[in-house]
Amino acid sequence: MNLVRIARHIGNITSKLSIRQTASLTKVEEGEPDKLYRIVELELKGHDPAVLKSFVKFATTAGNHLDIQSNTWNLRKPIHDRRTVLKSVHIYKKHRVQYETRTYFSFIQYKYLTGSTADTLLEYVERNLPEGVALKATKVELQALPEHLTSP
């Protein structure tokens, strides 16, 4: 019973995939079928908000060219990190300098990807990553239930 529901769910997801992505599903490499990802989330962080904003636009445009649904959002406020340092090495505790860094975050979510499309997109985005921007990718893979968990 559960396998039927899972097969329907995977069928619904493959119907949401574009023609390019379903063509890559038919490819079989080394005897294994292509993986299905429900969500691939990119976490981008950097110190310059203008560079971060332009790269988010680049990454969403790259996803649109591959017919991938995407969703983007930013954290409202940057994360501040303040450090206070003494100007003098030994004495004069009143003479201090404060340094501050601001870290901005953006998130991009790509939905309903095949494994080969996700790998291609992530490689393309990583190769064009600008200086001063960090990238963290998280994938949520769809898998069938194991046999020992299904009802008889």
Describe this structure in words.
This protein is an alpha+beta fold and 152 residues long. The chain contains four helices and five strands, in the order H-H-E-H-E-E-E-H-E. The longest helix is centred in the middle third of the chain and has 17 residues, at 49-65. It starts with a helix and ends in a 10-residue tail after the last strand. The model has no long low-confidence stretch (mean pLDDT 82).
Outline the secondary-structure elements.
Blueprint: H1 2-16, H2 19-25, E1 36-46, H3 49-65, E2 69-74, E3 79-86, E4 96-114, H4 115-127, E5 133-142
Antiparallel strand pairs: 1-4, 1-5, 2-4, 3-4
Low-confidence stretches: none
Q: Please provide the count of β strands.
A: 5
Sheet with the most strands?
5 strands, antiparallel
* Residues in helix, %: 25-40%
List SSEs in N-to-C order: HHEHEEEHE
Which superfamily, in CATH terms, is the homologous superfamily? Ribosomal protein S10
Report the oligomer.
single chain
SS content category: alpha+beta
Query: What is the C-level CATH assignment?
Result: Alpha Beta
Strand % is 35-45%
Kindly report the CATH topology: Alpha-Beta Plaits
Radius of gyration: 22 Å
Shape, please?
elongated
